[in-house]
Design brief:
The chain is mainly alpha-helical. The protein has one domain: 2-Layer Sandwich (Protein Binding, DinI Protein, Chain A), CATH 3.30.910.20. The protein is 69% helix and 4% strand. It contains five helices and two strands. A two-stranded parallel sheet has the order 1-2. The longest helix is centred in the middle third of the chain and has 54 residues.
């Protein structure tokens, strides 16, 4: 399923923030001289997006986005038609009548821009509402995996240039989440 670049950017930002928070809030491990730290990596964005709850959230957001986009497209098409009509009538209308039509058109254009901004805010709010619980559960699973495998540091895969595949915890985190390991149990389906 394709997601919008804006959605991917938002999830990547939330993922990086969540990993940073988890690393900053976890206790520091003191090592004796000569011992080494175990490191793991996880693609938090992919883990969130590929959980069952993440896929449901994406579907809900896509449906909401497409619905809003259709409304905006229809209004924009109507405004384009009105502009063409104004252009055609510009030679036959009086200066005052033409100015009145142009003013009305500009007001409608401003209204459309305002609606667009409101839709974006609504979409961002819904996105946050749907993805935050998933991110929290994924982060809890990552912490549990790291603890059970004696991994000292878990780094977001998207912030590294190279990672050996055997250090990647992403698939195991997704599997643990989808099998009900994301907390008390699978999250409820997103509200519509």
């Amino acid at each position: 399923m394709a997601t919008s670049p804006r959605f991917r950017f938002f999830v990547r930002g939330l993922s990086a923030l969540a990993v940073s928070f988890a690393l900053a809030s976890s206790p520091k491990v003191a090592h004796a001289e000569g011992s080494s730290s175990r490191i793991g990596v996880v693609d938090v964005q992919r883990a969130v997006a590929q959980t069952e709850d993440g896929l449901r959230a994406q579907a809900t957001l896509k449906k909401l986005f497409e619905s809003r986009q259709q409304q905006l497209d229809a209004k924009q098409k109507d405004l384009q038609r009105q502009k063409e009509e104004i252009d055609k009538q510009s030679r036959v209308l009086s200066k005052e009548a033409l100015q009145k039509r142009v003013d009305e058109w500009q007001k409608q254009m401003i209204d459309l821009q305002q609606i667009f901004l409101e839709y974006n805010k609504e979409l961002e709010k819904k996105q946050k509402e749907l993805t935050e619980p998933v991110i929290e559960k994924v982060m809890a699973i990552i912490k549990r995996l790291a603890t059970s495998e004696n991994i000292d540091i878990v780094i977001d895969k998207n912030t590294t240039a190279y990672v050996r595949s055997d250090l990647d915890l992403t698939d195991r985190a997704i599997q643990a989440y989808n099998s009900g390991g994301g907390g008390a149990g699978p999250a409820a389906p997103p509200k519509k």
